[in-house]
Task: structure prediction
Amino acid sequence: QQHRDELGTFLADGDRGGQILKLLQKVGEQLEAQRGEIAAELEGLRRHVEHVKAVVRSQQEAAKSGGVIENVALPTVVDDALRLVQDSLDKHRIEVVREEVATGEVPVDRHRLLQIVVNLVGNAAQALRDHDGPRRITVVVGDVDGAPQITVRDTGPGVLKEIGDRVFRYGFTTKKDGHGFGLHASALLARELGGQLRLEPPVQGEGATFVLRLPARMAEAS
Result:
């Protein structure tokens, strides 16, 4: 303000002018950085809105298809299941690895199948949220002996050998805030589909592996 009328001369001064130019440069860099941060926040908000819309669509489509047998590509069910639990996966920084072998389309009740996969991935995410080691969920889709399978494996603390299949009992849980409904309901839904949900023999410290096996007749019908 003091040198407003002689700004050119003031800036021409080597020391004072240089300091002002450095200050202006820093201010410009900060403004540019802030603009980038704001743009990133807006992009993140846009992605979140799209995610919410996709979740709502998936739930609506699943509700409409309840009790209806349709030809389903299993990887698309995994897509929808992961979308429904994506917020939890992101929050707890859980990596998801997918391994898929072409299985063809399977005639199945998509709604029930989706419920099972959501429960399995959600259960794995719960096991990993306080885990100090690697947080990774592997979802494998493929045919085994002519029967389509979906396997969900995590790198969490695993299941004690003495617990075994008790994880499928109504109300059984090892989590302090668990309710013991998810795996029980999933086992019942698997039976309704004519399939089977099992826990692979537990190995303490090596995570848990759940296998959903659909009947071979479904694979043959596709």
DSSP finds seven helices and seven strands in the chain.
